[in-house]
Amino acid sequence: MKGSLIGVVIMREWKTRVLKRSFLLSTLLTPLLGVGFIALTVMLTKGTESRHLVLVEDAPGLITRMDQASGQWVPRCPGCFPEREMLAYRFVREAPSDSIWQADGYSALVEFDEAVLQNHAGYLVYEKSPGMQAKRNVERDLSRAMEHARVLGDTELDWEAYQRLKFDLNLVDRESGQAGRQEGGGEEVRGLVGFMFSAVLFIILAVYGGLIMRSVVEEKANRVVEVLISAVRPEELLLGKVIGTGAVALTQLLSWSVLSTLSFTLFQFVFDSGILSASAAPATGEIPADLMTVMAENEFTSILLDINWGLMAATTIAFFTGGYLLYGSLYAVVGSSVQSEQQGQGMVFPIIMPLMFAYVIGAGAMENPEMASLVWLSWFPLTSPVIMLLRVAVGAPIWEVLLSWLVLMITARLVLWVAGRAYRHGVLAGDSQTGWKLLLQWVRGHGQ
In this structure, what is the dihedral angle of CA atoms 183, 187, 189, 194, given to the nearest 10 degrees? Predict the structure, then answer.
């Protein structure tokens, strides 16, 4: 009988929220917007891949010379301007007016004077920005050409000898473990992915925690709770409300996962079929690249290919379950002890502080996701729901993840028991008294 009554409370909480239009819209639109963002990024990346022709005005004659055979100005250091598919250069001593070089098809004009070797500055003139990648390439090529000019002018070395003396060290990551040395690297990228999951979980815990507090406050105000506790014990009502509201969040998380997977699969099918690039393919005669290849070539979307989505989704659901049982019960107790939602907001802040602290630490740990403090915070139940997701993305041992989750679940069960004692008194409290002192009295079993 007890189990069936708790089940009724759970279904009531679940149906009340899941069948709302706002819930259905957010559940359907969020994954579509997420996949749409990825699709837009991929399409804009392909759509903005245009060839840039840059005109370089070398007025002081530092980096160019006249080629007698062609009658054109050419770089003194041809190797400083490597051939690129999307970037090419032309050199002059005096550039024409802006309207003329733009009409001739140039994307940008580079200007500098004889002081460039001292002030390390020039001008990039354009009508439409060529983009950050093109600008970085121009800066890199011109810097190398200026270096060539300085070496020839200020040292006794020739350029070839100087190049032989230059030394660029490339450190290749290797991780040392019990299985020996293995290929490493990419911790910062994986840390960013883990932080994204942690941020989502933090927002969901905060939003749905506030939802359960609001529900308790409203039921106290309209006397619905008095009808409910005539059929179930207050502790059972608390458990049913926490599980029911948590089930709403789980329904949304699972729906997002399924809809995101289906939407991305559909986009991949459409993209790989060539429908989106059908108009461009005949003009170039090239075979369109598949979606995975295009994403791998993009600095942002390539990160998404390195994610173990299944593991991250399972860990997120597991730690959400424990985290919501813990924090949801605390939110419900606060709701039972206040007469309005405004009063509850002030009392909720100390409860949410550990999660906020974990969120801030996680944001700072993206550059070093293996810092020692994260290990301790991933074991502390009040911060583990957020911190452990960051560690899982980097590669935390499975046994640590499981033990941390067990500690979280045990703590959540203890908090539910303690919260139930306070909730039993709070839901029937009718006066205006609030505060932590009153809650502690209820936990000790001293009612009003």
Answer: 130
